[in-house]
Amino acid sequence: MAVDENTIRELTRRAISELGPRATELNVKRLVNDAVKKLEAEGGSTSQPLEMVPGTFHLAGTAGENNRLIVTAFGKNRVGIVAELTQALARHNCNLEDITQKLLQDYFAMIMIVEMPADASMGTIKEELAGVGNRLGVRILAQHEDVFTTMHRV
Predict the structure, then answer these.
(1) Which residue has the higher pLDDT, 137 or 47?
(2) CATH number of 68-151: 3.30.70.270, 3.40.50.300, 3.40.630.30, 3.30.70.260?
(3) pLDDT reading at 117 higher than 50
């Protein structure tokens, strides 16, 4: 059984917290990869605590988990990009918390911070946004805020 994206996000968050100042990209990747391999070997079950570093690092419940997405869009400018994206998000009861956009000659670039409801399926939202992007000829990327933050951490 494959480990889902929410579990990987939680493992990443926990690894960063546990490593503190030693949380380099390589160290976090190593811990998370080891934990994912262990979970997959155990059938992907997250019902039991998962020790990553003996006695210190455990996978626990995800209560209070941040449910924000970072959505980026870029491509050739055309009418209706913002309207179609926000309509797709509204169909999933997502709340637009912040948005910035820029036109660079004939090109459109936008970043949004979006709050998803607790019961939302990030996979479903990402699929719909990809469909919107295909229809509009715009590249759309949606990532959980925790993943985005971890990837862009210096």
Answers:
(1) 137
(2) 3.30.70.260
(3) yes
